[in-house]
Write a structure and sequence with these properties.
The complex is a heterodimer of chains A (264) and B (287).
Chain A: E1 12-22, E2 28-39, E3 44-48, H1 55-63, E4 70-75, E5 78-79, E6 87-90, H2 102-112, H3 117-130, H4 146-158, E7 164-168, H5 176-190, E8 195-199, H6 203-209, E9 212-216, E10 223-228, H7 237-240, H8 244-263
Chain B: H1 4-7, H2 14-55, H3 61-64, H4 67-80, H5 87-118, H6 120-135, H7 141-149, H8 153-177, H9 181-190, H10 194-231, H11 237-246, H12 250-278
The chains are: A alpha/beta (264), B mainly alpha (287).
């Protein structure tokens, strides 16, 4: 499970990053303290940690929406400066545009990036087909279920062919069954191309999806431990969670995580 | 514990569902008819009571008029024209002032609202003054406008603009500020420039606020135009009201009010149609 990941510069690198927030009324809080991590190209990394510990902060810094207070964030070997076009982001909240039809939502990325209309819509139709929404192009998001809206969000992100995919608890609002289906769908769409950083509070989700799981401490967050998940791929997330090794890993990581949750 | 299948009565099948459905729909229709019927009853009671009270001299028809006299007044205006010329000309003049004020005021309000809403420093500086300006009774400015701009159309349009601008502005501003930050971040990461974020995220999400304000502000524009005419003019429904008031003609005041109400209702209907057209992406509300 290690060969394709270790070569060349890492896709994402955080070096001794600390991040301090100044709230509008002038109070400072430290969200992240001396945090380092590296994600290889083509690697799927999950970050787990207690609620509110600063998991999302790491993603914001990788996108360039947020600057670290100290330390350095590098993407594809270069320091982050503004929003990198090679990055895709799937949000926890519903971030699809409710006033655009499903097809217009999926085509948004290429259109923003100056592709021609016909090319953008051809591609959007292709991605709609891939996420199983070919017949819903003319629908508006409010007419779809939560799971279908997430598929729209996935298609909207994947259409830009991101080399780095950041996901901030993307499936946490879905019910258990839909979530499992979406996890499989994500693994299929990803297929080992590009690096993924998947933030979640769901430990089983992290283990089922990732190559490595990063456990963060309570706020101010720093890296507690990294776990290699040596479960074979391709994985079916609904089945793998019953594998003995999965249960073993899950118990081991939970032991670590529980201490932090109790502190937080 | 029995399973649900066992507790179901025997007769539940497609045919009986149809029957229940038909009965339910009939009930809904009957209720609808009842509501309409009761509305008519209320109208008849109120108007009839007024007419009766006036005819029996319980209230003085000289001061409070009565429905039949108001109706006669409207017919008289339509047939013989008002003292200032044909009724439709008066309606047209007021409508023109209202529409001009409404259009200028709402375009200005939307523009300023979006510009200020997108700029943190400007909005922090100006928000205080906007709040103050919004709480001043702006109708009073009508006097200033009549002094400065004369008895013609300009003073009425100016008053209508002032009435409309702040309402639309406040709503556009609020709408821009309420734009979902995840959606904005999403658009940015998908590759939108700052201008594209404004046009494809901020404006659409502010649109429901803006359109809601247009409903209210058309009424304000009408008030602005009529009050402007009332304060000093040569034409318009406002002048009609002030003339009727000068002549102690209560029926004339009520008749002008009804004409205004008709204009406002038609405008509201048109605005609702526009709103439905522009906001067709929204879930239909449940009421």
């Amino acid at each position: 499970m290690s060969s394709p990941h270790s070569q060349g510069t890492p896709a994402i690198e955080l070096r001794n990053v600390s991040c301090r927030f100044i709230s509008p009324d002038g109070k400072a809080t430290l969200a992240l303290r001396d945090f380092s991590m590296a994600v290889a190209r083509g690697e799927f990394v999950a970050i787990v940690g207690p609620t509110g510990c600063g998991k999302s902060t790491t993603l914001s810094m990788i996108t360039g929406l947020l600057k670290p207070t100290t330390g350095e964030v590098r993407v594809m070997g270069a320091p982050v400066d503004g929003i990198d076009p090679r990055i895709g982001f799937v949000f926890q909240a519903d971030a699809v545009f409710p006033w655009r039809s499903v097809l217009d939502n999926v085509a948004a990325g290429p259109l923003f990036r100056g592709r021609s209309k016909s090319a953008a819509y051809d591609e959007a139709n292709e991605w709609l087909r891939r996420v199983g929404l070919a017949n819903f192009g003319k629908h508006y998001p409010h007419q779809l279920s939560g799971g279908m809206r997430k598929r729209v969000a996935l298609a909207q992100t994947f259409i830009n062919k991101p080399e780095i995919l950041l996901m901030d608890e993307p499936f946490s609002a879905l019910d258990m069954q839909t979530r499992t289906l979406m996890q499989d769908e994500l693994l299929q769409l990803w297929g080992g191309t590009g690096s993924v950083v998947f933030v979640t509070h769901d430990l089983e989700e992290a283990i089922a999806l990732a190559d490595r799981v990063f456990v963060l401490t309570a706020r101010p967050a720093t890296l507690k431990k990294v776990y290699e998940i040596d479960l074979p791929r391709p994985r079916i997330t609904s089945e793998i969670r019953y594998a003995p090794h999965f249960v073993e890993l899950s118990r081991e990581i939970w032991h670590d995580l529980r201490e932090e949750v109790q502190i937080g | 514990m029995s399973t649900p299948q066992q507790t179901l009565p025997q007769g539940i099948d497609a045919a009986s569902l149809d029957e229940v459905e038909r009965a339910a729909q009939q009930r809904i229709r009957r209720r609808h008819a009842l509501v309409i019927g009761l509305r008519i009853v209320v109208l008849v009671v109120v108007l009839g009571g007024w007419e009766l009270a006036a005819r029996l001299k319980w209230i003085d028809p000289f001061f409070f008029s009565m429905p039949s006299a108001i109706f006669d007044q409207i017919v008289d205006w339509l047939v013989n024209g008002t003292s200032q010329g044909p009724l439709l000309t008066q309606v047209w003049v007021t409508l023109e002032e209202t529409a001009l004020g409404f259009i200028i005021g709402s375009i200005g309000g939307v523009f300023c609202g979006i510009v200020l809403g997108r700029n943190k420093l400007l909005s922090d500086v100006f928000s205080l003054y906007i709040k103050i300006a919004n709480s001043i009774p702006r109708v009073v400015l009508g006097s200033v406008f009549v002094i400065a701009l004369g008895l013609g159309m300009a003073s009425k349009v100016a008053l209508a603009v002032v009435m409309v601008f702040f309402v639309v502005f406040a709503n556009a501003f609020q709408g821009v500020r309420e734009a979902d930050r995840y959606m904005i971040a999403n658009a940015q990461i998908l590759g939108a420039s700052r201008r594209q974020v404004t046009t494809s995220v901020v404006i659409p999400s502010a649109l429901s606020w803006i359109l809601a304000s247009l409903h209210v502000s058309f009424g304000f524009a009408l008030v602005g135009a009529v009050v402007g005419e009332f304060l000093g003019s040569k034409q318009g429904i406002g002048l009609l009201i002030s003339t009727a008031q000068g002549a102690f003609n209560a029926s004339g005041v009520f008749a002008a009010m009804i004409v205004l109400a008709v204009v406002a209702l038609i405008a509201d209907y048109l605005l609702t149609a526009v709103e439905h057209r522009l906001l067709k992406w929204r879930p239909t509300s449940t009421n």
